[in-house]
Amino acid sequence: MEIYWDAFINGFNGTLNYTWRSILFQVPWYTNYFWGLISISLIVWLLEFLFPWRKDQSVFRTDFWLDAFYMFFNFFVFAIVIQGIYNLLGVGFRELGITAQSFAVLHLNHWPIWAQLLLFFVLLDFVQWLTHIALHKFPLLWRFHQVHHSVKEMGFAAHLRYHWMENILYKPLKTLGVMLLGGFEPEQAYMVHFAAITIGHLNHANIKLTYGPLKYILNNPVMHLYHHAYELPKGSFGVNFGISLSLWDYLFKTNHLPEDSGTITLGYDGDTKMPKGFWGQSLHGFGKRKG
Questions:
Q1: Going by fewer Cβ within 10 Å, which terminus of the chain is more open, N or C?
Q2: Closest CA to 133 of 145, 119, 147, 150
Q3: Residue 266 φ/ψ, nearest 5 degrees
Q4: How confident is the model at residue 81 (pLDDT cuts 50, 70, 90)?
Q5: What is the pTM of this model?
Q6: Could you tell me which of 253, 248, 222, 223 has the C-alpha nearest to residue 236?
Q7: Rounded to an integer, what distance in angstroms lies between the CA atom of residue 95 and that of residue 97?
Q8: Residue 277 burial (C-beta neighbours within 10 Å; 0-12, 13-18, 19+)
Q9: For residue range 223-234, what is the model confidence (pLDDT) as tens digits?
């Protein structure tokens, strides 16, 4: 039992210490997710200010500060709390003979670093795309995902407004993706993570970007806005599920982009029942209410 307790404490303390050292600039800048997140957020926010798509939308839009809190809570506070549990589970799996290499399909350590990073990016994005579909398709999961879809005015910080249960749902599946690739992240995986943060911020930003012909590969704000549309195509439980890549939606025919005015109503049927504050939203999904 002591080994489990040590794993929990080490995971909690290790993540807490790393985050604190990041705040104090004591980790390399290129792996400093704390100041990296702040820098990306400020740059995208500045772009919203300079090139607003919906010009009548305030720079401090509806729920701006709530979403800003979500960014730091989901990216850092919850990560510190949950890492101990992940370490504990890791010990349990190792004792069952299940290691990070157990499900390896490809071993990338001999590949060129650019190929490792590209495949790492594509595979993890596909895993997250499948997870995202599940969040919409299954009522139990949709109840948690409603927090993200309760955004009524879109802006960059809405990227990380999501229920803490989504961390628990996404992390194991992302870990499985890593295991399939030989059980490790490439040493330069921080490039992939920062790219995903930037694309996610832009997708939710009040900026009109389509990337031209690259729109069939890269997700973009115009396409993602319709993912948040209140009115969906008849018979659909969702559209445009792409995280960083729009490729999967075009391949599997879940793409939908009827126009690009940016003036559509956002939300979902029953979103008026969503609590307005963080704590109420954190408990949302566990009750028996409908909608």
A1: N
A2: 145
A3: -105, 160
A4: confident
A5: 0.91
A6: 253
A7: 5
A8: exposed
A9: 999 999 999 998
